[in-house]
Amino acid sequence: MLIIGLTGGIGSGKTTVSQYFEKLGVPVIDADQLTRELVAPGQPALKEIVEQLGADLLTTDGKLDRPQLRKRIFTHPEQRQILEAILHPLAREAALQQLIALRKSVCPPTYVILSVPLLIESGWTDLVDRVLVVDTSPAQQQQRASQRDGLSTAQINTVIHSQTDRDTRLAIADDIIHNNTDLPALQSQVTSLHQQYQQLAHPR
Predict the structure, then answer these.
(1) What span, in angstroms and rounded, lies between the C-alpha atoms of 198 and 183?
(2) 58: which DSSP letter?
(3) pTM for the full model?
(4) Which of 8, 94, 122, 203 could pair with 12 in a Cys bridge, judged by C-beta atoms 3.0 to 4.6 Å apart?
């Protein structure tokens, strides 16, 4: 079972690419989704976040206040480090368990997508066989992140600067999806890579 590590900067289009792979029947393990599950009410990780970063990060119904958390880590980088120290090891272990389950399944998939925004920064590259980078221009990152999350230019720049720079990300990539035109072109690139990964996993 081939493991493809999918990554890219904020606003690059990772989620859309993941959805196209899923439509082709490819399992996708999404680190962001794992993290959301880890901070659900009643989970130990949420308790630790509150203990270390403050109860004001909870909504009135006991859920993690994501906008408040985002604002906090934008303005206090040291709190971002605390948050990542809590969540990254747990998310990695959860991803490993899902990979093991897929390998042991009755019909293991030819390959799987492991989608991790901070694949390089978190050192998760050791989990994957190939790195797939979704790349787009900084201007498009700004536009997409602003439209999707309502972030200011300053906030988006903070995220961009906290991530691996574009050149480094591209240098480590085995495969690159160029998300700089339209959705049909993006989908076409995913389809081509799907065929390539199937061949790599089962060479004739």
Answers:
(1) 23
(2) B
(3) 0.91
(4) 8
Give start and end residues of each alpha helix (H) in the chain: 14-23, 31-38, 44-53, 66-75, 77-104, 138-149, 153-162, 166-172, 183-201
Name the CA radius of gyration of the chain, rounded: 18
Return per-residue pLDDT of the chain as tens, 204 residues. Answer: 999 999 998 888 999 999 999 999 999 999 999 999 999 999 999 999 999 999 999 998 889 998 888 888 877 888 989 999 999 999 999 999 999 999 999 999 999 999 999 899 889 999 999 999 999 988 888 888 777 777 777 777 777 777 888 899 999 999 999 998 889 999 999 999 999 999 998 765
Cα(145)–Cα(163) distance, rounded to whole angstroms? 14
Neighbours of 111 (CB within 10 A): 23
